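Give me structure tokens for this 87-residue protein.
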Amino acid sequence: MVFILRANQRNYVVSEHAAKRMIERFISEELIVAVLEYGTVIDQPHGRVLYEHSVDDEIIEGVIIIGVVVDETTNTIVTVIDNTEEL
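Here you go.
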């Protein structure tokens, strides 16, 4: 279930692992794009970057924090994280 998302004028390959996490955590493609375009960039080991962004979610009527880990060398979204409990 690998697919492509477009954000920041770049194409990102969404890995199968990341796609599964999106489904498990009810995180839409639109939210992933918002995180990539507006999120804070945090460098990670092994050439990966964590994009993190707070989003006001109408369904839960509150703020959620989403993290997206990207392998910048291949433009691959490695995983998607819900960091809301850190609030």
